[in-house]
Amino acid sequence: MSTYLKKTSTYTVSLIVLLPLTLFCLTFLLPFSAYLSNPLATPAAACGSAGASRVAVRAAPATDAGVGGQQRRPGPELSVLVGVHTMPGKHSRRHLIRMAYALQQTAALRAAARVDVRFALCARPMPPEHRAFVALEARAYGDVLLLDCAESAEQGKTYTYFASLPAMLGGSGGGRPYDYVMKVDDDTFLRLDALVETLRSAPREDMYGGVGLPFHDRKSPPFMLGMGYLLSWDLVEWIATSDMVRRNAMGVEDLTTGKWLNMGNKAKNRVNIFPRMYDYKSAKAEDFLENTIGVHQLKADLRWAHTLEHFNLTRLEPSSTLHGF
């Protein structure tokens, strides 16, 4: 009888099953554990590029390095870190948001400001399948911030996000890596050029910007709505070092952020962008403002489609060969 017809040995079956699994772990999960310890490392360093020894992580001077350890070139005077708060399982939503913001990084925008968009996720809990897929994103795009927190907006995620950034970015004592840090929901679409234009005339110190409720004080609202708000870098550093803020980390995140600033007698400069950031109403053109900065409540893909089409992000060149477009 031919050897090809003999019964396959248990050893052979085990080898066939375990070899791919072992390769998967070596390729994705081990590098991902390194990424957890240094989420702002470059993709190559975090993943252990072929032939390279283990890279020692140091905080580069804030004036020379940005997110991901990339060298900052002399350029625009304004810089903003946009942290999109999302959850590990929302892989397709993150990819949609990446495309929406990448298409806005025009030469004109880059000349006016440096706007870095990153996705803020909590490392706990993270099922194995999400851990593997997030590791792929971290390697491919280098735009994932993994925070040491539980995935819940009311259990201190926003506090961990702001409080972790100075250590991650190496900003303390060496200059500011960003002028502003923004927290934004993953169901909010931002028009980056409109955001930058507004910030160019805003204070760079002790600044808290966002959308205040219409019935609050328009000039100095007690808090900004959680759809999206900004803090100047000095306030981010203050959050990272304040015992009072740490003790009050839990709670409804937008109300809690305003509470910190009010209790600490901070954020004397409040920039209320109401009504230029607002909730989605419908696909009708009249329901989008011409000077829009952001549209919120885009929880369904169809709402994203309506919004992106209205602001011409889906426009194709006349030479496109896509049928029916």
From TrEMBL:
- Is Cytoplasm found in the keyword set? no
Q: Which InterPro entries match?
A: Glyco_trans_31
Cofactor list = Mn(2+)
Any idea which UniProt keywords this protein has? Glycosyltransferase, Golgi apparatus, Manganese, Membrane, Signal-anchor, Transferase, Transmembrane, Transmembrane helix
User: EC number(s) on record?
Assistant: 2.4.1.-
Q: Which GO terms describe its cellular component?
A: Golgi membrane
- Single GO MF descriptor: glycosyltransferase activity
One matching Pfam family is Galactosyl_T
Q: Does the keyword Transmembrane belong to this entry?
A: yes
Q: Where in the cell is it found?
A: Golgi apparatus membrane
Topology in the lipid bilayer is annotated as: Single-pass type II membrane protein
Q: In which pathway does it act?
A: Protein modification; protein glycosylation
Task: Indicate the family of this protein.
Answer: Belongs to the glycosyltransferase 31 family.
UniProt name for this protein = Hexosyltransferase
Q: Give the organism, scientific name.
A: Urochloa decumbens
